[in-house]
Request: fold
Amino acid sequence: MALIPVSILTGFLGSGKTTLLKRVLSESHGMKIAVIENEFGEENIDTDILKTESKEQILQMSNGCICCTIREDLREALQLLAAKRRKGLVEFDRIVIETTGLADPGPVAQTFFMDDEIAETYMIDSILTLVDAKHANQQLDDRQEARRQVGFADQIFLSKTDLVTEAEKDALIHRLKHMNPRAPIKAVHFGEVALNEVFDLRGFNLNAKLDIDPDFLKEDEHDHSHCDHEHGHCTHDHDHEHHHGHDCGHDHEHGEHCSHPHHHHHDDDVKSFVYRADRAFDPAKLEDFLGAIVNIYGPKMLRYKGVLDMKGTNRKVIFQGVHQLMGSDLGPEWAPDEQRQSKMVFIGIDLPQDIFRQGLEQCLA
Reply:
């Protein structure tokens, strides 16, 4: 049976999550979606749309969607929904999990790596982070949770861009890209964005494309002053070969990079860095090094991903991780005319880029 795609929705207060969820739960979009709402949030859709005397956890909406509020364990809620679906009691094709007010989408994502029963039923489609363009700079300055949410994202949606100038929007995009170069950034109005632009993004899956904005890399090569680090690693834990390579269906509309002189320098603690090598990795050395790094820095490592050239195989090795958990998979063969090069991106909190780089250099064959 096909795995059920899951979108994890995170983002700043006031960024439009509630607007988006209300649309999902009430609009006649023809999709069967289950929305799992974590009840720790400061803003709850319950107040408006779920006025009901029932204590029932799962509510059927008029448009065929389901809303499931959870107060305890996400794993239990997912198992309950899967069981009801198997018995034909509820019908849904995908799940949206809202993580409002939870500082860190990491544990939510980890649920899908750690639990075999969950991993056999569901797959993460992508982690979506909503950013309120009007208040983003202040929120990013003041709150680490906001910076972490950006670091975790597979896709960043920028709301309220109509309330800021073009220059302010460009500066914000520039800042977000330094925190997370692998997430496409798209300006949206959640009142009217097509829902198919929100779902089936295939952003999380292991795949052979490591999409990093080329302008980000170009700029990085000649200017290290304002971009230093963010997290990394890789270990062969081939348990999860069901995160297979779908093409990352993102259309990178944000090619307009912007290196305008008016950018303020924000020294965010969530940063990214890219490591590249033209020599193959020694698999055993790399596995040991990444294992050690994850042990020490795992809690600060938000997302990391790589396409690797490994000694002993003609296929690309694709790895990615969240915090202490990582998985790897064999990708397609290197084309005969393709330059074999390893590329990794690490996104994390105050990671010691020099230690990572030196360690990775020593793992080359």
Notes: The two ends are 41 Å apart (CA to CA). The chain has two domains: 4-197, 270-363.
